[in-house]
Amino acid sequence: MTRVELFENIKKKKSFLCIGLDTDLTKIPAHLLLEEDPAFEFNKQIIDATHDLCVSYKPNMAFYETEGVKGWISLEKTINYINEKYPDQFTIADAKRGDIGNTSSMYAKAFLEKMNFDSITVAPYMGEDSVMPFLEYPNKWVILLALTSNKGAFDFQTTLNGNNEALYKQVLETSKKWGNADNLMYVVGATKAEMLTEIRSIVPDNFLLVPGVGAQGGSLNEVAKYGMNDQCGLLVNSSRGIIYAGNGKDFALKARAEALILQQEMQLLLLDAKLTKLFGE
Amino acid sequence: MTRVELFENIKKKKSFLCIGLDTDLTKIPAHLLLEEDPAFEFNKQIIDATHDLCVSYKPNMAFYETEGVKGWISLEKTINYINEKYPDQFTIADAKRGDIGNTSSMYAKAFLEKMNFDSITVAPYMGEDSVMPFLEYPNKWVILLALTSNKGAFDFQTTLNGNNEALYKQVLETSKKWGNADNLMYVVGATKAEMLTEIRSIVPDNFLLVPGVGAQGGSLNEVAKYGMNDQCGLLVNSSRGIIYAGNGKDFALKARAEALILQQEMQLLLLDAKLTKLFGE
Q1: DSSP string of B174-216?
Q2: What does the pLDDT read at residue A217?
Q3: Tell me, what's the pLDDT at A46?
Q4: Which residues of chain B register pLDDT less than 50?
Q5: B62 φ, ψ to 5°?
Q6: Strand pairing report for A234-238 and A141-147
Q7: What is the pLDDT of residue B277?
Q8: Contacting residues for A231 by C-beta, under 8 A, at least 6 apart
């Protein structure tokens, strides 16, 4: 998917919501456990109930790998289902991979080619040659970790270097030479929304994937205030707050209700922002 | 596996060799492609031919994930085969995972519990709460990335902070409070063997997993000179140099020949070092 297409979808749906498919068999409604593939059945119903309210789905690999071969089958069925039925969804393999070049090439092939995700989250620690293999696929995206939403983000990411620059800013500065706003996004945690101002000064045009709204405590208003650019430039993720909103047979409707609240907030934020006039096109 | 058991195996086999199972279907001998599970058949023959010369096997997840469900089946068969037939091998899931706490817990369950690997490689970028879930398993190990063997290691890992300390040293200093020499090892690239002196001053007792000997150009003598401690403290990995030594029906014998060369060098290094007398026990 190109950046233009993603922005068109955001305008069409009046939403920059990404729904995280952190599908945990110990948390999904009990009646689904009788299905042949409970994780896929859960995902399918969540997706069918929310697809018009969001522009992106983000399955988190850990939740599938923990079920071994069965989990991998659920994952492949999920991405195939989205790609076939809702091809306008921007799909993110939340994998946080990154290894030496020939190994990153293998991961890139797995996620961007064979499973045909639009993007993959990548960890920056191993530097340029660990990231470049993912950038070689046309119209595919790297979403590089910059400033994450967890407590441990302050262990290394905010350490100041000799130039008084935090590591996450060095990651932004250095990596923007590897790609551009058409193939490189960044993970920026919502729990530090005020930091978005400085981040935007370094990467004004790149999309930011913002986790941590909802269960992790970030504020959507703050994120939009400091992070939105003239092509929106934001994908805000919510996982648990949406997909585990209900635990009965109506879980998908409950998930839709939560997604709708976020979409409605996003619609207002998009209208309030300088993007307003774009809706008049 | 405990540290004592690992050291006993090193003494018994006179080897600190780890063999990387980077099993690539485009590189294995053509006759194996007729097998039902070529990757597993390749691994099985490599393992049977080399197990007495090494103390550790390290399947690299990327090479299995790139084959999807089939690859995951090959991986599970491989780890089960090693655990059943050669339980004295220290098994490493080379996965370079790391995510927020609840997600890292899922990865830990996948690799350390369900597949029962002894250890997993973990990326440090997301800090303490991304690493701790892996340390909760008794007699299991985190192998944390410190200084990797690729060119990109110099993008961020060697950046000096305000205290004039390279990031990889900060990772060592900070992370050694999270675990200890009985559950925490570090990845240190062999291409910078002289840096091992400083690394040893920070983590004198921890085992170091050293990739990059062979295909990536590191020297085994240098690694032993600067990195060995009184319990050996080293696992030196070779992947492509061993497993792709041959490409015919005798590929496993060729792999054994390459592994033997490294084991023999390691035996001399262990005898030369202060570990000599330990062999007299």
Answers
A1: HHTTT--TTTEEEEE-GGGGGGHHHHHHH-SSS-EEE--BSTT
A2: 57
A3: 98
A4: 276, 280-281
A5: -55, -40
A6: unpaired
A7: 52
A8: A3, A7, A205
* pLDDT top residue among A149 and A46: A46
B96 tagged catalytic: yes
ipTM given for this complex: 0.95
User: What is the domain count for chain B?
Assistant: 1
Contact (CB, 8 A) for B55 and B90: yes
By the CB < 8 Å criterion, does A177 face chain B? no
With an 8 Å Cβ cutoff, is A78 touching chain B? no
> Chain-wide mean pLDDT for chain A?
94
Contact A100 B73 (CB under 8 A): no
Q: What is the CA radius of gyration of chain B?
A: 18
- Give the model's confidence band at A193: pLDDT under 50 very low, under 70 low, under 90 confident, else very high: confident
Contact of A157 with B127, CB cutoff 8 Å:
yes
Closest CA to B90 of B49, B148, B143: B143
Torsions phi, psi of B204, nearest 5? -65, -30
Q: Which of A276, A180, A183, A184 minimizes the C-alpha distance to A228?
A: A276
* Residue of B106, B160, B172 to mutate when probing chain A, most A C-beta within 10 A: B106
In angstroms, the separation between the Cα of residue B115 and the nearest Cα of chain A is: 8
Nearest to A110 among B66, B124, B128 (CB): B66
CATH number at residue B94: 3.20.20.70
A:117-136 residues touching chain B, CB 8 A cutoff? 123-131
Interface membership of A167 toward B (CB under 8 Å): yes
pLDDT at A281 over 50: no
pLDDT exceeds 80 at position A190: no
pLDDT score recorded for residue A191? 74
The CA distance from A253 to A239, in Å, is 15
| Residue whose C-alpha is closest to residue A159's, from B173, B262, B209, B93 | B173
pTM: 0.96
Say if CB A228 and CB A273 are below 8 A apart: yes
B91 sits in which H/E element: strand B90-97
Q: What is the DSSP string of chain A?
A: --HHHHHHHHHHHT--EEEEE---TTTS-GGGGGSSSHHHHHHHHHHHHHTTT-SEEEEBHHHHHTTHHHHHHHHHHHHHHHHHH-TTSEEEEEEEE--SHHHHHHHHIIIIIIS--SEEEE--TT-HHHHHHHHTSTT-EEEEEEE-SSTTHHHHTT-BBTTS-BHHHHHHHHHTTT--TTTEEEEE-GGGGGGHHHHHHHSSSS-EEE--BSTT-B-HHHHHHHH-BTTB-EEEEESHHHHTS--STTHHHHHHHHHHHHHHHHHHHHHHSTTGGGGG-
What number of C-beta contacts closer than 8 Å exist between A and B? 186
Q: Which domain holds residue A173?
A: 3-280
* pLDDT at position A185: 98
Q: How many residues does chain B have?
A: 281
Residue among A68, A99, A111 minimizing CB distance to B72: A68
